[in-house]
Amino acid sequence: MLNKQVMSPLLSIRALSTCFQIQETVVKAVDNVSLDIYPDEVLALVGETGCGKSVLALSILRLLPENSLSEGSILYKGFEILEGSNEELRALRGREIGMIPQSQASSLNPLLKVGWQVMEVLRLHTKVRKPDAHKKVVELFSRLQLPEPEKRMDYYPHQLSGGMRQRVLVSMGVACNPNLILVDEPTKGLDAVLRMEVVKLLGRQAAENNRSMLLITHDLSVAALLADRIAVMYAGEIVEMGSSAGVLKIPRHPYTQSLLDSLPGRGFKPIPGFSPSLSRIPPGCRFQPRCRVACSKGAALHPDLREADPNHYVRCFHAD
């Protein structure tokens, strides 16, 4: 891993907040998040479903509905994404920042052949001719070990297995050789064998092509295998962030500890209670009602994210 102290971030997020106006209710899905992603780095964003992980990724690409509002700063190579024009954003998406979405069923058009769908990504962003795009997609399918790549070009999504469809999504995300790939829940709904297959595939893509990756997952085992650093998200905010080894082996936040204890190999202990509603966020520590070491201070005061150990950040009074 390169020394980040002498590197500039590829992507730098500062005080990002994204909320949704739903009738009379304001839902704050991402709240004052700051993080960096460096060149050739895999940063995993982990947390329970509904904590704001996917909204953060969609905020980066400005692919949110009209009832959303994002504030703060998202700098990509010095370009402020939140101030970019539609034309600038179209040039950025796919070409500079790719995305591999989580749902195979909704992300692939069931009425179009998969080869054509990947070709369209190439033709939109690189302006290559159709024969050249066809050739490149076949090469891409082959590199991703899709069986009989030339033949699969003419398949519809329903004719492919789950693993094959996942490879097609990866092909779409990496087709234009983006510097940064946003990968959203790549193993969701997959069985153990297919999950490991996808993890190996993503690991090869990151290692062989020197790409940076924001890996969004609720699966800590996937994060452990792929990530250089891990950021733990709870109720819209980062509660812990550090090296993969540091967060997984010496977790400082009670939520991270509880997530690890909920794994089958650690006793399969469920976290009691539920995450707070993002439309009614409590004033103090957001994890306090579920915390096994909750302190009275956390009931009223909201802890800041601070450096508890070198390059290891935690949002908890108990960690003081």
TrEMBL record:
Keyword Translocase part of the UniProt annotation: yes
Pfam families linked: ABC_tran, oligo_HPY
Entry GO terms, CC: plasma membrane
Membrane topology, from the record: Peripheral membrane protein
UniProt subcellular location: Cell membrane
SUPFAM superfamilies: P-loop containing nucleoside triphosphate hydrolases
Domain ABC transporter residues, every copy: 13-260
Gene Ontology biological-process annotations: peptide transport
Main EC class the enzyme belongs to: translocase
CDD domains: ABC_NikE_OppD_transporters (cd03257)
Major subcellular location class: membrane
Catalytic activity of the protein: Ni(2+)(out) + ATP + H2O = Ni(2+)(in) + ADP + phosphate + H(+)
Swiss-Prot/TrEMBL keywords: ATP-binding, Cell membrane, Ion transport, Membrane, Nickel, Nickel transport, Nucleotide-binding, Translocase, Transport
Coiled coil regions in record: none
GO molecular function: ABC-type nickel transporter activity; ATP binding; ATP hydrolysis activity
Entry's EC annotation: 7.2.2.11
Similarity field: Belongs to the ABC transporter superfamily.
Subunit architecture: The complex is composed of two ATP-binding proteins (NikD and NikE), two transmembrane proteins (NikB and NikC) and a solute-binding protein (NikA).
Protein name per the record: Nickel import system ATP-binding protein NikD
Organism for this UniProt entry: Desulfosporosinus hippei DSM 8344
